[in-house]
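Q: My hope is that you can spare some time for a protein that puzzles me. Underneath my words sits a plain record pairing an amino acid chain with its backbone structure tokens. Those tokens are not coordinates but codes from a learned vocabulary of shapes. Thank you; the sequence and its tokens follow:
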Amino acid sequence: MIEVTVNKLRKVEYVSLNFKTNVNDLVVSIRRPDGAFHNPNNIVVTPHNEDGIYIFSYTPDVVGLWQEKITSVINGDRSYRNIKVVPYDIEDIKVQLDIMNAKIDALTSQMRSSGYFL
């Protein structure tokens, strides 16, 4: 399951069935954790070049499980994706951990070279 951060723009790329271009009836439905739809009239799907990839974005504004649904009657597309919206940015935490580990490694190396560790 994909994890995204609350109140952070989520950009979604969707590949249409058989990479079909000019699918003009794609409908995106975003369901919030309480079951209500998220801004049903404000989601715009735009084609990406002429490669069958379509892009839309939205900002999840509450923590919990969300569902993205993409359909097309003409092309037969029907796709669901579950999203876990979390209150923290996992990538930021990973970056901070990497920085801390690098500092610890540098200090350990310094201590070894000065004779603190044998």
